[in-house]
Task: inverse folding
Protein backbone atom coordinates (compact mmCIF):
# COMPACT_ATOMS: atom_id res chain seq x y z
CA UNK A 1 0.00 0.00 0.00
CA UNK A 2 0.88 3.68 -0.09
CA UNK A 3 3.44 4.97 2.40
CA UNK A 4 3.68 8.71 3.01
CA UNK A 5 6.67 10.15 4.86
CA UNK A 6 6.59 13.72 6.16
CA UNK A 7 9.42 15.96 7.37
CA UNK A 8 10.14 17.70 9.61
CA UNK A 9 8.03 16.56 12.54
CA UNK A 10 8.40 19.97 14.20
CA UNK A 11 9.20 23.35 12.70
CA UNK A 12 9.65 26.68 14.43
CA UNK A 13 9.88 29.93 12.46
CA UNK A 14 9.77 33.63 13.17
CA UNK A 15 6.74 35.57 12.07
CA UNK A 16 7.22 36.74 8.49
CA UNK A 17 9.58 33.92 7.54
CA UNK A 18 8.72 31.13 5.14
CA UNK A 19 7.99 27.54 6.15
CA UNK A 20 8.44 24.45 4.01
CA UNK A 21 7.12 20.97 4.78
CA UNK A 22 8.10 18.04 2.60
CA UNK A 23 6.44 14.70 1.91
CA UNK A 24 7.39 11.66 -0.12
CA UNK A 25 5.11 8.87 -1.29
CA UNK A 26 5.75 5.35 -2.49
CA UNK A 27 2.89 4.45 -4.84
CA UNK A 28 3.49 5.79 -8.34
CA UNK A 29 -0.26 5.41 -9.03
CA UNK A 30 -1.08 8.15 -6.50
CA UNK A 31 -2.53 11.18 -8.24
CA UNK A 32 -4.13 13.34 -5.57
CA UNK A 33 -2.18 15.15 -2.84
CA UNK A 34 -4.05 17.25 -0.26
CA UNK A 35 -2.74 19.15 2.74
CA UNK A 36 -4.69 19.51 5.97
CA UNK A 37 -4.27 21.94 8.83
CA UNK A 38 -5.31 20.96 12.33
CA UNK A 39 -5.44 23.62 15.00
CA UNK A 40 -5.31 22.55 18.61
CA UNK A 41 -8.51 20.80 19.64
CA UNK A 42 -10.08 21.14 16.21
CA UNK A 43 -10.75 18.90 13.24
CA UNK A 44 -8.33 18.74 10.29
CA UNK A 45 -9.32 21.08 7.48
CA UNK A 46 -8.28 20.98 3.84
CA UNK A 47 -6.11 23.99 2.98
CA UNK A 48 -4.83 23.14 -0.49
CA UNK A 49 -4.54 20.15 -2.81
CA UNK A 50 -2.91 19.25 -6.09
CA UNK A 51 -3.40 16.64 -8.76
CA UNK A 52 -0.62 14.79 -10.54
CA UNK A 53 -1.17 16.61 -13.81
CA UNK A 54 -0.21 19.90 -12.16
CA UNK A 55 3.27 20.86 -10.94
CA UNK A 56 2.39 23.76 -8.68
CA UNK A 57 -0.66 25.39 -7.17
CA UNK A 58 -0.94 28.62 -5.18
CA UNK A 59 -3.56 30.11 -2.92
CA UNK A 60 -2.51 33.43 -1.42
CA UNK A 61 0.35 32.69 1.00
CA UNK A 62 0.18 28.93 0.52
CA UNK A 63 1.61 26.91 -2.34
CA UNK A 64 2.11 23.24 -3.06
CA UNK A 65 4.63 21.79 -5.48
CA UNK A 66 4.73 18.27 -6.86
CA UNK A 67 7.58 16.33 -8.41
CA UNK A 68 6.09 13.10 -9.78
CA UNK A 69 9.42 11.74 -10.96
CA UNK A 70 10.93 11.97 -7.50
CA UNK A 71 7.59 11.18 -5.82
CA UNK A 72 7.65 14.11 -3.47
CA UNK A 73 5.51 17.14 -2.82
CA UNK A 74 5.93 20.14 -0.57
CA UNK A 75 3.87 22.78 1.20
CA UNK A 76 5.22 26.32 1.20
CA UNK A 77 3.86 29.01 3.50
CA UNK A 78 5.18 32.52 2.96
CA UNK A 79 4.97 35.50 5.32
CA UNK A 80 4.01 33.26 8.20
CA UNK A 81 1.71 34.56 10.92
CA UNK A 82 1.07 33.28 14.47
CA UNK A 83 -2.32 31.95 13.33
CA UNK A 84 -0.47 29.59 10.98
CA UNK A 85 0.67 27.67 14.07
CA UNK A 86 -0.92 24.23 13.83
CA UNK A 87 -0.22 20.64 12.85
CA UNK A 88 -0.06 20.11 9.09
CA UNK A 89 -0.68 16.76 7.45
CA UNK A 90 0.10 15.74 3.91
CA UNK A 91 -1.72 12.86 2.26
CA UNK A 92 -1.80 10.87 -0.95
CA UNK A 93 -4.46 8.93 -2.76
CA UNK A 94 -4.89 7.14 -6.04
CA UNK A 95 -8.19 8.94 -6.57
CA UNK A 96 -9.91 11.95 -5.10
CA UNK A 97 -12.63 9.96 -3.41
CA UNK A 98 -10.62 7.00 -2.32
CA UNK A 99 -8.92 6.50 1.01
CA UNK A 100 -6.16 8.94 1.89
CA UNK A 101 -2.88 7.83 3.40
CA UNK A 102 -1.55 10.51 5.72
CA UNK A 103 1.91 11.53 6.80
CA UNK A 104 2.60 11.71 10.52
CA UNK A 105 2.22 15.46 10.66
CA UNK A 106 4.37 18.55 11.18
CA UNK A 107 3.84 20.77 14.18
CA UNK A 108 4.48 24.32 13.01
CA UNK A 109 5.07 27.07 15.54
CA UNK A 110 5.24 30.68 14.38
CA UNK A 111 6.66 32.98 17.01
CA UNK A 112 5.97 36.73 16.98
CA UNK B 1 -23.07 24.47 9.72
CA UNK B 2 -21.65 21.20 11.02
CA UNK B 3 -21.77 18.66 8.19
CA UNK B 4 -20.08 15.60 9.72
CA UNK B 5 -21.30 14.87 13.21
CA UNK B 6 -19.79 12.42 15.64
CA UNK B 7 -22.16 11.46 18.39
CA UNK B 8 -19.78 11.85 21.33
CA UNK B 9 -16.90 14.24 21.93
CA UNK B 10 -15.56 12.35 24.94
CA UNK B 11 -16.18 8.76 25.94
CA UNK B 12 -14.88 6.62 28.80
CA UNK B 13 -15.41 2.87 28.60
CA UNK B 14 -14.24 -0.15 30.52
CA UNK B 15 -11.99 -2.88 29.17
CA UNK B 16 -14.04 -5.59 27.47
CA UNK B 17 -17.05 -3.39 26.74
CA UNK B 18 -18.55 -3.24 23.27
CA UNK B 19 -18.30 0.36 22.08
CA UNK B 20 -20.20 2.09 19.29
CA UNK B 21 -18.93 5.31 17.71
CA UNK B 22 -21.45 6.97 15.44
CA UNK B 23 -20.85 9.31 12.52
CA UNK B 24 -23.50 11.07 10.43
CA UNK B 25 -22.98 13.31 7.40
CA UNK B 26 -25.57 15.49 5.68
CA UNK B 27 -23.71 16.15 2.44
CA UNK B 28 -24.90 13.07 0.53
CA UNK B 29 -21.31 11.83 0.28
CA UNK B 30 -20.71 8.32 -0.99
CA UNK B 31 -17.46 7.71 0.87
CA UNK B 32 -17.02 7.54 4.61
CA UNK B 33 -13.90 6.79 6.64
CA UNK B 34 -12.77 6.07 10.16
CA UNK B 35 -9.29 7.07 11.33
CA UNK B 36 -7.59 7.03 14.68
CA UNK B 37 -5.18 9.79 15.57
CA UNK B 38 -2.33 9.24 18.02
CA UNK B 39 0.55 11.59 18.85
CA UNK B 40 3.51 10.98 16.58
CA UNK B 41 1.62 8.47 14.46
CA UNK B 42 -0.62 10.78 12.47
CA UNK B 43 -3.93 9.55 11.13
CA UNK B 44 -4.24 5.85 10.52
CA UNK B 45 -7.07 4.37 8.49
CA UNK B 46 -9.22 1.80 10.26
CA UNK B 47 -12.09 1.14 7.84
CA UNK B 48 -13.83 2.87 4.98
CA UNK B 49 -16.96 2.51 2.90
CA UNK B 50 -17.82 3.48 -0.67
CA UNK B 51 -21.50 2.66 -0.50
CA UNK B 52 -24.28 1.44 1.73
CA UNK B 53 -23.58 -1.99 3.20
CA UNK B 54 -20.11 -1.91 1.73
CA UNK B 55 -16.89 -1.82 3.80
CA UNK B 56 -13.19 -2.13 3.23
CA UNK B 57 -10.38 -2.69 5.72
CA UNK B 58 -7.84 0.01 6.17
CA UNK B 59 -4.36 -0.27 7.64
CA UNK B 60 -5.32 -1.15 11.22
CA UNK B 61 -8.69 -2.95 11.25
CA UNK B 62 -7.88 -5.46 14.02
CA UNK B 63 -10.25 -5.16 16.96
CA UNK B 64 -12.72 -3.01 15.03
CA UNK B 65 -15.72 -3.53 12.78
CA UNK B 66 -18.04 -1.12 10.98
CA UNK B 67 -21.62 -0.82 9.84
CA UNK B 68 -23.16 1.26 7.09
CA UNK B 69 -26.88 0.58 6.85
CA UNK B 70 -27.72 4.05 5.51
CA UNK B 71 -25.75 6.34 3.24
CA UNK B 72 -25.45 9.11 5.82
CA UNK B 73 -24.38 6.97 8.78
CA UNK B 74 -21.15 5.06 9.37
CA UNK B 75 -20.60 3.34 12.70
CA UNK B 76 -17.34 2.11 14.17
CA UNK B 77 -17.60 -0.79 16.61
CA UNK B 78 -14.99 -1.88 19.12
CA UNK B 79 -15.99 -5.47 19.76
CA UNK B 80 -14.16 -5.73 23.09
CA UNK B 81 -12.48 -2.49 24.08
CA UNK B 82 -8.87 -2.64 25.20
CA UNK B 83 -6.63 0.01 26.71
CA UNK B 84 -4.54 0.22 23.52
CA UNK B 85 -7.64 1.49 21.75
CA UNK B 86 -7.56 4.66 23.80
CA UNK B 87 -7.26 7.31 21.12
CA UNK B 88 -8.89 10.13 19.19
CA UNK B 89 -11.22 8.75 16.53
CA UNK B 90 -11.97 10.84 13.49
CA UNK B 91 -14.73 10.22 10.99
CA UNK B 92 -14.59 11.75 7.49
CA UNK B 93 -16.64 11.76 4.33
CA UNK B 94 -15.99 12.64 0.70
CA UNK B 95 -17.58 12.63 -2.72
CA UNK B 96 -16.94 9.74 -5.07
CA UNK B 97 -15.91 12.05 -7.85
CA UNK B 98 -13.11 13.36 -10.01
CA UNK B 99 -14.47 16.89 -9.68
CA UNK B 100 -12.46 19.65 -8.10
CA UNK B 101 -14.75 20.12 -5.13
CA UNK B 102 -13.82 16.94 -3.36
CA UNK B 103 -11.64 16.25 -0.38
CA UNK B 104 -12.42 14.99 3.09
CA UNK B 105 -14.70 16.72 5.53
CA UNK B 106 -13.83 15.61 9.03
CA UNK B 107 -16.00 15.32 12.10
CA UNK B 108 -14.89 16.91 15.37
CA UNK B 109 -13.57 13.62 16.69
CA UNK B 110 -14.35 11.35 19.63
CA UNK B 111 -11.73 11.06 22.32
CA UNK B 112 -12.13 7.55 23.68
CA UNK B 113 -10.51 6.44 26.91
CA UNK B 114 -10.59 2.77 27.81
CA UNK B 115 -9.91 2.06 31.48
Result:
Amino acid sequence: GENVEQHPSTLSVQEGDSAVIKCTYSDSASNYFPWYKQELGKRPQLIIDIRSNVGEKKDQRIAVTLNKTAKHFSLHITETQPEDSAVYFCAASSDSGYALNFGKGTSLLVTP
Amino acid sequence: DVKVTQSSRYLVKRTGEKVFLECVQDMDHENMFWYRQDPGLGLRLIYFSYDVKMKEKGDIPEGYSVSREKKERFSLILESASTNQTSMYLCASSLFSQRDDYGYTFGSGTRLTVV
User: Anything to note?
Assistant: The CA atoms of residues 6 and 50 of chain A lie 16 Å apart.
